Every structure is written in C-alpha cells, then in structure tokens.
C-alpha cells in the first residue's frame, strides 16, 4: 500500500507587533474547527511528537497533522479523519490506537437532530514510518449534537456521552474498542436536562468511568452532576448522581482531567452563569475521594470564556487556559465579548489550589479575536501516560481570518 503524500510545512508566518503565539494554516471551509464547548480535544502526544486533527483546505477534509517543534509548524500527513465540514471532533490516543470521534454539531439552544451519524475512526501507528493507518470506522449514534466526548476504560471499552431529547445519553463498545452497542439514557431521573445542557466522560481511578453533566431546568435540582460506572459492571449500572456544585448557576462548558495515579482525583474546569462582578464565571471543581470542592479560576469581572484545564505531572501544577479580553496595545483591547479575545493561562499547584495569580497571555492576534482553545486528553510530562518531556501545546482559532493559532512550550524546561 503506497504511503500517503506528505505536504511539506509552510514557511512560518512573521508575527506582527503585539502578537503572542504563532499563526498557523488556514481552515477556510469549516467553522470553529477546534470545537466550542471545550469538552473535546483536538491534539495528542505520541512517540515524542505532538499531533493534531486539523482541517486541510486543499482537500477540504480533516487530516492528521504532525507538529514540527523545530520550525513550530504543522505538517500534513495526508491521512484523513473526516471528509465532512461543519464537524467537531474528540481525539483519544490510548497508547496503541488513535480514536477520533467526529460529529455534526448543533448550536446553543437547538435540539439534537436525527440522521446525522457520529463516527469513530480508529488508526494504528507505525513508529518506524511515523504513519497512521485506518483500522475501522463505526457509528456511535445517529444524532447531530452540541458536544460529544469519548474515553476508554480499563477493559478496553470506549464510552461516549452526549445530550439528545433533553436526556444525557451514553454508548459503549465491546472490549474490542470498536463495536458500538445501542445508545441509552443515563438511568437517573437527574439526567433529564435542558436542551442546552452537555456532558463529558473520563476514565479515572484505575477502573472507573465518570460522566459529568450540566443541569439547567430552572428548579432546585439545577447544578453540575457527577456519576460513575465500575468497569465490567452492567452498562446501565451507574452510581446515583451527586452535585459537584448545586444551584441555578450552571452552564454547559466542561473540560475534565484526572491524575495518572489511581487516587481517584478528578478536575473539572466549568463555566457558570453568574452575573455579578465578584462572582465566579469559570471554576475548577476538584474531586478527592467522594468530596467535590469548588475553586474560582476567574470572576465575572474578568470576562473569561471557553476554558480547559491541563495537569503537568512533572511540576504537579494545574494549568488552565481560557479566552479573556485582549491586552493593551491591541485592537479592541479590554473589550468583553462572547466572540473571542486572547488566550491566557492561569495556573496553580494541584495540592494547594489558588488561582489568584496574574494571568499570562499565550495566544494573541493583535488585530483579531482568538477563541476556543484546545489541547489533549493526556497529562503533560507524564511518564505513566508516555508524555515525558511533552512540554505544552495549545491550539486556538481566529474565526475572522479562518486561521489556527498555537502556543508551544518545549519539554525539559
């Protein structure tokens, strides 16, 4: 079988005064290619290399791209992951197989629509040739949804979750990690949610699969809920949901991470719907044992949006990235808008969570708004997850110019 054509990397784009990060290739032909609800991941780290699921404008489909750390550019491998524009993706590298879940998406406040298949494509990797090969393509569901995420449990089964028909839904493969069953609603009455709610899954604690969802139905049960399944149990055997936070202040943005060690700790970066300046607009929820605690990442006054959390295991730091108003000296500096701004980082020791530190700009287009930051499911610089010396790579979108942007931090610093 002939090897796929590899497109050489483009020449780096010279930054303009006020820019932070690197401007990347165009994604003309598809909107919001990094997703919008921040539950999903577009990057992964394998074989000492960062990789990404990016849109290729020449062929008008999504491809696997390799990140060239020396030139800080993306190289198209020519391996397609989805021929459809207007799709979002959640990418999982499980150590041996690349899993790419691709779905057509609906916008905020719109219900899921049938007859739009969500597909998971699986790829093997050849370390000698640095090449991925398609293994299979199977259907997770037949719905166009707002957000969908996947993760793999300790038995080799891949789980997926999304919202349809105002219920939190799940599906799971067999232990082959490929053959999907029949989608089903989470068994709890608390999985009856609003049309604008979303969910996310994460494997944790060595033998469990967790699911978190928002609940915005307008009564005393509103909040952010968490339930888990023990690997090997019946598909519908999930624990009674507990509220990680309770109250009518929930929103549908979720990003989940967990430590490599089997101590059961899970971290969730979430958005609220608070409106007073001093109230938290994005929070970090931390699970330790059976107890959730809430920590303010940024207040309403700081105007944050679209957040992710990364765990750096080498430094034991939680690193959060979100959209904030642009810095002084740039176009629209300080403007608070839902359409974008600049990507900033706020970080904290994971054993002493406190985000009162100054935020640091990581991606700034001096002339336009950046938005929708994404990275990988894996933890940074983790021996257990084979990401030793990964450093950091985050990717964002500048919609006005249809350009990707990235910030890269080499490992071993």
Topology of this structure?
Layout: E1 22-26, E2 43-46, E3 49-56, E4 61-68, E5 73-82, E6 87-93, E7 98-104, E8 113-126, E9 131-144, E10 149-152, E11 158-164, E12 167-172, E13 184-185, E14 199-204, E15 208-215, E16 223-230, E17 242-246, E18 250-258, E19 266-272, E20 280-288, E21 291-299, E22 305-312, E23 317-324, E24 342-349, E25 360-363, E26 371-374, E27 392-398, E28 403-409
Antiparallel strand pairs: 1-28, 2-3, 3-4, 4-5, 6-7, 7-8, 8-9, 10-11, 11-12, 12-13, 14-15, 15-16, 16-17, 18-19, 19-20, 20-21, 22-23, 23-24, 24-25, 26-27, 27-28
Structure description:
With 413 residues, this protein is mainly beta. The chain has one domain: Neuraminidase. The chain contains no helices and 28 strands. It has strands at 22-26, 43-46, 49-56, 61-68, 73-82, 87-93, 98-104, 113-126, 131-144, 149-152, 158-164, 167-172, 184-185, 199-204, 208-215, 223-230, 242-246, 250-258, 266-272, 280-288, 291-299, 305-312, 317-324, 342-349, 360-363, 371-374, 392-398, 403-409. The strands form 7 sheets. It has a 4-stranded antiparallel sheet, with no helix packed on it. Strand 6 (87-93) and strand 7 form a beta hairpin. The relative contact order is 0.14. The model has no long low-confidence stretch (mean pLDDT 94).
